[in-house]
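Section 3.1: Structural characterization of target chains.
Under the original work plan, the team committed to producing a structural model for every single-chain target entering the pipeline before any wet-lab resources were allocated. The record below documents one such target. The sequence was received from the expression subgroup and is listed exactly as submitted; it comprises 470 residues.
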Amino acid sequence: NQDSYETQPESWLYAFLSNFIDYLYVALPITIIVVLCKRTNLVPLFIKKNSIVQSLVYGTAIDSETPSIEDGLPLVVSSDCNNDEHQSTRSDRSNNVINNIWHLLFCFFGLQISFLTWGVLQEKIMTQTYQFRYSYLESHIEQLSDNLIKITSTDLMNGNRVEIRFRNAQFLVLFNRILAFMIAAIVLRFKRKHSNRRSIVSSIKINHSSPIETNHRSLPPYYLYVFCSLSNIMSSWCQYEALKYVSFPAQVLSKGCKMIPTMLMNSLMIGKKQKREEWFFALMISFGMTIFLLNEKVKHHRILSENFLSGVIILILYLTFDSFTSNWQQSLFDQYHSLTSFDMMFAVNLFSVLFTSISLMKQHDFWPILSILVENPVLLRDCIILSICSAAGQLFIFYTISKFGAIIFTLIMTLRQALAILLSCLIYSHQISSLGFVGILIIFGSLLTKYYQKFRMKKQPKSKSNQNVL
């Protein structure tokens, strides 16, 4: 039970800043290389012609088109589906209704099983205890910092067993990204086995100061992925870290409030103006979330008020980073039409693995965590299944949107959020008051109404065209 422990409110901020500073050890050298290559003549030509430097700084061109059903699909799908016009076309849809129903059921259960299991394990790893041998902790006490584990109880009468909580959210991010990176690499290997690629920089004439250009037959330079990779791992870290301060239902419901930062990012990054009804739904969802969080604060009155405030701040950071990630990725898809979801998945996770692994090693946490996993097979099993569910969920996202569109996908994921809250309450004994249920009803009612309006607006042009034919 989350009420049974407290976390120092300043610990998350220290970890957040430490991680970010560590990421600069990767980001700054990349920045220096890009600036030197694009803005100066200091770099020798043979270095600029190096294939790694070319891909990093200038991008790659595709000699032959590699068609894919998920072209133009963002890796992180926004819950408000503002980018419906960019969703991939429904290719090769069967005229057989039964076949479509089977496909829909496959997508539905695939998404539900993947993300519900992922949610249950996410909460278990970050909030529940695991048993360790007292002798193990005693022999490794110098390597096991408070950033890794928290000892909750010791039972010397029961085989010297010690109850601990796993605390390192960054390692979970790394664990998930490694498998996602491997899957994307394997898919791209098979997809482009016969595709020949050459560098954009194929001659001596190199434009040092050219801005990012829209090229329908090229892939973006790899340094552009650094931005969304950073925001992606920071949002994932905040998502895990928030569970130390707020309940899992609160974390799930906060995703509904993603509409406001997403719309703000749309306005700032691509100049897209939102309709009044969009702002109305966003404010209603935020109002429902506020009611639920007030219920959380009353329910967890024994926890330090600073802890609750820390949880709210972390959720806000999570939504902000997540919104930036999806908008930045969408801008890349808009500029580079040959870019596929698996290209994005590969590049983003490549940098994410670099960022998080170097940070863990610099903080001297990487090898102690591996030792912890070897010592406790249950924790290792949970981390592996968590990573598998996360990667499988991404594949189901790509397939569902390509097959049935973003609205059907969003409705399935909205139902998943409701089921995730129900499962969390049943498994981990969360209690929601009547005021909390009011907040939940406002949030899901607003979401469903919003998606129904979008669905009706998409159907209107078709019905009008049919009337004109008659």
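The longest strand covers residues 149-155.
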